[in-house]
């Protein structure tokens, strides 16, 4: 696996927030749509050299960020659901 496709994984209280920096263009749509305002800008740069995003522990693992990401750069796994489709 090439380094740019290594996911950035954050284990949070309600689930796991997985970001693929090589796919994130830093559009901020996930930040805008997050109902808990738990997503913010990261220091990790994405595909165009723009900042990517990260979540904090107020994340409820609802998956809205995953659903609205136009580049499929985010994956959410709720605790206890890993491996389920």
From TrEMBL:
InterPro entries named in the record: 4Fe4S_Fe-S-bd, 4Fe4S_Fe_S_CS
Gene3D superfamilies recorded: 3.30.70.20
Keyword list, A-Z: Iron, Iron-sulfur, Metal-binding
Keyword Iron among UniProt keywords: yes
Leader peptide range in chain numbering: none
Superkingdom of origin: Bacteria
Pfam families: Fer4_7 (PF12838)
Residue ranges of every copy of the 4Fe-4S ferredoxin-type domain listed in the record: 15-44, 49-79
Annotated GO MF terms: iron-sulfur cluster binding; metal ion binding
PROSITE patterns membership: 4FE4S_FER_1, 4FE4S_FER_2
Official protein name in the record: Ferredoxin
Organism: Pelotomaculum thermopropionicum (strain DSM 13744 / JCM 10971 / SI)
Lineage, top ranks: Bacteria, Bacillati, Bacillota, Clostridia, Eubacteriales
